[in-house]
Amino acid sequence: MTVAIMTDNQSGIFPEEGKKLGVYILRMPFFLDGKQYYENETITAQEFFDRMEHNPDMEFSTSMPPAGEVLSMWKEALKTHDEVVYIPMSSGLSSSCETATLLAQQFDGKVQVVNNQRISLTQRQSVYDAMTLRDQGKSAKEIKDILEAEKFNSSIYIMVGSLDYLKRGGRVTPAAALLGGLLRIRPILQIQGEKLDAFAKARSLKAAKKIMFDALHKDLDGRFKPFVDKKEMEVYISYTHGQPEQVKQWFEEVKTEFSDFNVTQDPLSLSISCHTGPGCLGIGCARKVV
To answer: What CATH code is carried by the domain that includes residue 202?
Structure first.
C-alpha cells in the first residue's frame, strides 16, 4: 500500500521543495486590496513587504484554497497512490481543515485529513513525521491517528513588530493598538494547541527575546522533559522576510541559548504575514516522531 503525503504552504514548504521531498503542496491564496496572490508565483516577499510599507491603508486578507483545487490534488495523488494523508494548517486558525474533512468523506477513507493544530515550522515537522511513518509502513489512518495524538507536543512563541495588523484582524481593539504604538509595546503571542493567544508584552526587543527564551526553557524543562531526555525535541526559529541581519543574530542567539538541540529556521509564509505584519521573530519546538 502506498501513501501520498500532502500539506499546504503554510508549513513553509512550497511546490519546488515539495517535489524534492515527494510531498504534494497545496497553495494558499491571500488578497491585497481584493486582488488574489500566491507567494513566489504572482508576488515575491520583497514586493509584498514593499507594498505593506508604502501603502499603510492597503487591505490584507487570507482565504482557504478553493475546494476544486483540493479535490483535484487528491484525485491526482490517488492515480499513483492508494491513500492520501493531508496535513492542513491548524483548524483553530483557518476553516480549511474543517472543509477538507467534509470533502474527504467522498473518498471512502482513502483520504485522511489530519487535525493536529500545527502551523509553520511545527506543521513542517508533522510532514517530516508523516514521511517517517509512511516509510515504516503505516497506513494513512494510522499516520493520522499518530499525528493527532502528538498535537499538543509542540509550542510556538512569536514577537510581533506592531499591534496594527492584529487590530486589522480584530485580535486587539483599535484603542489597544494605538496605546501599544505610543508605548512601543512589543506583543508576544503563543500557539499552544489550536488558538493564537496573547502571551506577554515587552517594552524592548531584548526584553521580548528573554521572555520567549524563558517560556521555551520552561516548556522543555517541564512538560516536554521526557521527550528531551530521549532526544526527541526539535527547536526552530521563524521570522518575517526582509530583516536578514536581525534574523542572523536571532538564529545565532537561539543556537547559543539552546545548544543541546538541533535548531532550524524558516520564514513565515506571506499568508501568515498578512496577520502579523513585518518585524516578527519567533521560536518554537516540537516532538519528532521516531
So the answer is: 3.30.1180.10
